[in-house]
């Protein structure tokens, strides 16, 4: 039953097959790395950032895959080319439709560049490339990005108006009037 207490448990049991298939897919793309001699020379001269030399030589042509699932929502991160990401999306869709008899929401299922961001569990997740400054020059290292998790502004405003935080006041909640301070604090912490 959707929204029931047992729903997440049933989703976990049913989607365990998908978790196993994703583990296989992740193992396929695990990189076999060998040290890059060019990186070592540039690092000793402290020029690896400016020249944009990668530390390792990836000897596995398959894309790297990461996978996170919470109940029936999941996100797949792929480090690789667009056509390979499209192939992985098609494989996962096929598993879900043929093996598990589930349908995919095509408006939620899309391939997005990491720096553009995507919504997962109502949070915006994106990768911002770091800018490192060496000898007065700024170099963009897209492979060294930092993951950001952002609360959508509309959601933050909605909470702000609901609890009068945007006006500098907290909304009085009659149901909490007879509770002790610790319980009131815990209640408001779950909201934030």
UniProtKB/TrEMBL annotation:
Keywords: Nucleotidyltransferase, RNA-directed DNA polymerase, Transferase
GO molecular function: RNA-directed DNA polymerase activity
GO BP: homing of group II introns
Superkingdom field: Bacteria
Species name: Candidatus Phytoplasma citri
Listed InterPro entries: DNA/RNA_pol_sf, RT_dom
Name of this chain's protein: Group II intron reverse transcriptase/maturase
PANTHER family reported for this sequence: COX1/OXI3 INTRON 1 PROTEIN-RELATED (PTHR33642), COX1_OXI3 INTRON 1 PROTEIN-RELATED (PTHR33642:SF4)
SUPFAM superfamilies: DNA/RNA polymerases
């Amino acid at each position: 039953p959707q929204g029931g207490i047992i729903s997440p448990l049933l989703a976990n049991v049913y989607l365990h097959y998908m978790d196993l298939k994703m583990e296989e897919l992740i193992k396929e793309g695990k990189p076999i790395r060998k040290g890059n001699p060019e990186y070592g020379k540039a690092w000793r001269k402290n020029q690896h950032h400016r020249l944009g030399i990668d530390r390792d030589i990836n000897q596995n042509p398959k894309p790297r895959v990461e996978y996170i699932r919470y109940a029936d929502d999941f996100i797949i991160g792929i480090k690789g080319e667009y056509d390979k990401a499209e192939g992985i999306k098609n494989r996962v869709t096929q598993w879900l439709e043929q093996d598990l008899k589930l349908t995919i929401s095509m408006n939620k299922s899309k391939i997005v560049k990491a720096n553009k961001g995507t919504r997962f569990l109502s949070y915006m997740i994106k990768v911002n490339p770091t800018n490192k400054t060496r000898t007065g020059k700024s170099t963009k290292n897209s492979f060294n990005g930092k993951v950001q998790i952002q609360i959508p502004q509309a959601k933050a405003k909605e909470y702000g108006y609901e609890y009068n935080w945007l006006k500098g006041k907290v909304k009085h909640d009659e149901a909490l009037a007879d509770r002790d301070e610790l319980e009131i604090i815990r209640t408001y912490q779950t909201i934030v």
